[in-house]
Amino acid sequence: MQPEFRKRISLLNPIHFCALGFGSGLIPVMPGTFGSLAAIPLLLLCGALLPWQFAAITVLLSVAGIYICGKTAYDMKVHDHGSIVWDEVAGMFVTFLLVPLSASSLALGFVLFRFFDIVKPWPIGLIDKRLHGGTGIMLDDLVAGVMACVCLHTTLYLWPF
Questions:
Q1: Percentage of the chain modeled with pLDDT above 70
Q2: pTM value?
Q3: Any idea what job this protein has (predicted)?
């Protein structure tokens, strides 16, 4: 039997499809991790863009995510359900702002982003608890992405690989 929320959403709805990370958020274990993994092919597609183009796409994914995540949560009648992973996709893009993509930078950035998204150090945890709706769903992951990005840039500066 399907969970109650699953009856209220459809992968045929483009808003739900995006919010659920192209279906990756429906994987029953670690949906946030699978949502973050779903961002990697998109990152690779955008890896050859100029920095300003990559930044523009990151802003677009983030701003659109407020609506995408908020609408899907509303339709599900569940605030920030674990299957909503568009915020992880946008957070991964923030993580890789101005980072040259390679297998090692992708692996390290992925681990850093997942660390900040799971542990939720200040202010991420505060944002996660206090903000609601699409903005709340998105903002904690965007801040996790900023923190991961700073750590990734620092690591690449100190130990270039």
A1: 98
A2: 0.95
A3: Lipid phosphatase which dephosphorylates phosphatidylglycerophosphate (PGP) to phosphatidylglycerol (PG).
